[in-house]
Amino acid sequence: MSNNDEPEDFFGQDSNFTTDKIRVEIPAPEEPTDQQRIPSGYDPMGEIYLRGRAMRNMSSGTMPWWVLMSGWVLFGGLFFLVLGIAISSISLAVIPALIISGIPLLIVLRGTVAKLSTKKRRRR
């Protein structure tokens, strides 16, 4: 094994270095500064943020198929239950409940359309 610790090996014979070994300090890798902090789901604003994040992910079409199908069962079932109550009661008081239960169903519909459109793009 060669002795490459000598300064003459790196800088030539006419260098004025002492016999001390040359040391190079390499800084530690820096942590990324833009880490997204996820708030706690136990406080009200954190719960609102986490629900919005889940709905945003669901509407983007990146969720697995079983999540989309379970969303259709859960939110579609709730919507059709409220729709059945609205038809049977023929009351205007049920219309806000029908609108509120339809919002998650629209999000699932948007996610399904996005999921199907990415499938078609992959086939081409």
Structural description of this entry:
- The chain is mainly alpha-helical.
- Helix content is 61%, strand content 0%.
- The protein has 4 helices and no strands.
- The chain has helices at 7-11, 44-60, 65-89, 95-123.
- The two termini are 57 Å apart.
- The mean pLDDT is 79.
Structural class: mainly alpha
Question: Which regions are unreliable across 5 or more consecutive residues at pLDDT < 50?
Answer: none
Overall morphology: elongated
Helix and strand string, N-terminal first? HHHH
Count all strands and give the number: 0
How is this structure best summarized?
Helix content is 61%, strand content 0%. The chain has 124 residues and is an all-alpha fold.
SSE blueprint and pairings:
Elements (H helix, E strand, L loop, with lengths): L6 H5 L32 H17 L4 H25 L5 H29 L1
Helix pairs in contact: 2-4, 3-4
Which structural traits does this protein have?
single chain; 124 residues; mainly alpha; 0% strand; elongated
